[in-house]
Structures are given as C-alpha cells and as structure tokens.
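User: Hi! I have a protein structure encoded as tokens and I'd like to know what sequence might fold into it. I'm fairly new to this, so please keep things simple.
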C-alpha cells in the first residue's frame, strides 16, 4: 500500500505564487527522488478569485481540507486592490481559526553571522523560537463601529483570551522545550497594562510551568522583550506569547537573521491538518519581478516535511540552504545576483544531490 500524502497548495497573491512555485519544484523533485507518493492540489484562493467571485474559501473548503488533506502549503495574501485585507481574514485567518490551528511556530535561527544586523552575534547567539497563540487576542474580529464616518466615530476591537486557549499554547511551548531539550521558556505579555487578559496569561503560565520543574522560566513585558531580543538575543530559547505580540516579535526575529526572505512558520494543532507558510507577506513592492527570496518558502517546506515524517528531506533542505548562502547562490536581499527562479533551482540541485 502506498502511503499517499495530499497537500493543498495555496500560492495566494503577489510574491506568493513566485516563492511557492520555487518551493514546490524543490519539494516535488525531492519527494520523487525519495520515491514518496505525494499529491499536490492547487487552490486558487486569493485576491483574483475574491475580486472576481466574492469568494475566499469556497463552500465546504475547510471541511475538504480537514477530511482529505495532510497539510496546506501556503504562500501569502495581500493585494493593493483590497486595502482592508478582507480576503486575508477570510482565507488565512479562516484556515487558522476554522481549523483551530492554535500554534503558530516561528523559529528564529541565524544561518550566517553576516546577515545579523547586531555586532558580535552569530548562530550561537541568535537561535530561539516563538510560539505565537494563533486563534484569539485582537484577531478575533469581535467589535464594531458606532457612528461610523462621523466625527464622533467609535471603533472597538475586543481582545479575547480564554483559559483553554492560553493554556494550550503555553503547554505546547513547554512540551516542545521538553521534547527538544530546550532549557528555558519565556513568557512575553503586557500584564502591567492589559489587566484581565494579562493576568490570565500570568496565572496560567505559572500553573503550567509548575508541571515542568526541569525547564527554566522567565518573563518580560513585551516592550522590554522586544528591546532585549535586540540587545541580547542569546538570552532567549523558547518564547510564548499572544497572537498580536507574536506577530510583531516574529518579524523582529526575521530582522535578526537577514530578513523576511528567510523566515518560516507552521500553524499547528496536534492530530489535525497543519498549515505551513513563510512569515512574509505578498510584498507588492517586488511582486512579479522575480526578485523574491524563495528560501523562506523552502524552509517552510522543510518544516512541512518534518511534520510529515520526511526528516531526511527536511535535513537536505536545511543543509542546502546553508550551502546556497555560503556559495552566494541567492537573491538580492541577501546580496546575491539570482532571481527567484534561479535561486530556487540552485537550491533544488543541492537538495537532490543529498538524497
Ligand atoms: P511583506 O512581508 O509583504 O513585505 C515587507 C518587506 O519585506 C517588503 O519590502 C518586501 O519586499 C520584503 N520581503 C518580504 N518577503 C520577501 C522575500 N521573500 N524576499 C525578499 N524580500 C521580501 O509585508 P508588508 O509589505 O507589510 O505587507 C504586504 C501585504 O502582505 C499586505 O497586504 C499584508 O497584509 C500582507 N501580509 C500577508 C501575510 C500572509 O499572508 N501570511 C503576512 C504578512 C503580510
Ligand atoms: C502573519 C501576517 C498575518 C498576521 C496578517 C496577514 C493577517 O502578518 O502571518 O504574520 O497578522 O497573522
Ligand atoms: Mn506578520
């Protein structure tokens, strides 16, 4: 019996299709060389479909993902013609919330010291992982307008935190630390100002931490945490935080390792389908120019391969990323001269050489 894996491929908007094409070519070549049975099913969910049909995820789309797929490989959404990102809320947040993917895992690993904007910091100093809660907080779209479009307009966005939601992401971070031999879990919150949710995070963190006596813990208010990530990134190992803070800190993390062209992420819920996407957006400023760095999408693919049990492929991708960077077979954001396609092909050749 073949162990067929089905992956939904959602390239999305802007540079999404460019980096996903490159990443997918690499993943197809690698899985074929390994003799693995993968089916890659494209979904045209994104701005074009939204503008044409008013549809984000077609009726039954989430159920289909849950029942018939092992993972989603996603590019990015974002189109200047949809300034409020309505389609992004429906498609991306629709998948995160609708599939209850409560873990947003965003590793920050410096591959080459030259890409770190901090002086005297290398791969040993910049190596942490952000676990961002992915289903609550200010992202829930609970709120509304009052007296809209008048001088007295009121806008309210509620920040929702539940015991269940906070506890499961904190526990996931501790379980990850325990299983990966990590030494410390740091909580980032704003409990000095955001009273009720902050207190819930504080109390829940302490309660869960007590179950993991062998793992160190510490806490920073998120403003100081941002400063300390820049000042002494080596202090951090595993960071757990809320949805909005995690969004911001993970882009800061990308800045420490060479930019968004290198940052990968996974949206997870153990036992369910998972969604893998680069941290970056659709980058309209470079879209369609063959300039986007495909490495974030490639590392995202590696994360997906690990999740699917294809550790040898994941490792080949990670090693190949290091090699193409060392050989300068990279795009202009990393000081190279290659376009997206050529950089992707260089990566694929190296991956194939290892399998
Ligand atoms: P962005 O991540 O798209 O781009 C920020 C900067 O990083 C730009 O200068 C861009 O050129 C550069 N960049 C990003 N990815 C790159 C890559 N792979 N290679 C080289 N350079 C890269 O963020 P933004 O400009 O704030 O947002 C653009 C659109 O993307 C918005 O509509 C936003 O809402 C959306 N967005 C979507 C996602 C997602 O779908 N997951 C994530 C972030 C932003
Ligand atoms: C990300 C993005 C999204 C987020 C946007 C596009 C809704 O910035 O994946 O980091 O805020 O989660
Ligand atoms: Mn973001």
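Assistant: Happy to help. Inverse folding works backwards from shape to sequence: for each of the 355 positions I chose a residue that suits the local structure. Here it is:
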């Amino acid at each position: 019996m073949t162990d067929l894996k089905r992956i939904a491929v959602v390239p999305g908007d802007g540079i999404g299709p460019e980096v996903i094409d490159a990443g997918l070519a690499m993943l197809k070549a690698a899985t074929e060389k390994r003799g693995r049975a993968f089916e890659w099913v494209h979904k045209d969910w994104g701005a074009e479909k939204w503008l044409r049909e008013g549809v984000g995820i077609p009726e039954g789309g989430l159920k289909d993902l849950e029942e018939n797929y092992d993972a989603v490989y996603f590019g990015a959404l974002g189109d200047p013609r949809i300034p409020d990102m309505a389609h992004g809320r429906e498609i991306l947040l629709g998948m995160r919330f609708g599939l209850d993917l409560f873990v947003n895992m965003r590793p920050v690993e410096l591959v080459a010291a030259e890409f770190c904007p901090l002086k005297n910091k290398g791969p040993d100093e910049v190596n942490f992982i952000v676990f961002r809660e992915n289903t609550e907080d200010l992202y829930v779209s609970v709120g509304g307008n009052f007296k809209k479009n008048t001088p007295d307009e009121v806008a309210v966005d509620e920040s929702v935190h539940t015991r269940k939601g906070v506890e499961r992401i904190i526990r996931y971070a501790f379980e990850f630390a325990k299983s990966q031999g990590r030494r410390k879990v740091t909580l980032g919150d704003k409990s000095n100002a955001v009273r009720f949710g902050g207190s819930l995070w504080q109390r829940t963190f302490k309660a869960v931490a007590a179950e993991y006596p062998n793992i160190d813990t510490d806490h920073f208010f998120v403003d100081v945490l941002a400063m300390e990530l820049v000042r002494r990134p080596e202090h951090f190992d595993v960071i757990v935080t809320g949805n909005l803070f995690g969004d911001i800190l993970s882009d800061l993390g990308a800045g420490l390792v060479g930019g968004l062209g290198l940052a990968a992420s996974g949206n997870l819920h153990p036992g369910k389908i998972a969604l893998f996407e680069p941290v970056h957006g659709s980058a309209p400023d470079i879209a369609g120019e063959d300039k986007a760095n495909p490495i974030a999408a490639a590392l995202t693919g590696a994360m997906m391969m690990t999740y699917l049990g294809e550790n040898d492929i994941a490792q080949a991708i990670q090693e190949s990323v290091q090699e193409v960077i060392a050989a300068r077979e990279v795009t202009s954001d990393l000081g190279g001269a290659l376009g997206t396609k050529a950089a992707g092909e260089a990566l694929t050749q190296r991956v194939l050489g290892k399998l």
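A useful reference point when you look it over: Residues 105-135+162-258 form a domain with the Isopropylmalate Dehydrogenase fold (CATH 3.40.718.10). Feel free to ask if any position seems puzzling.
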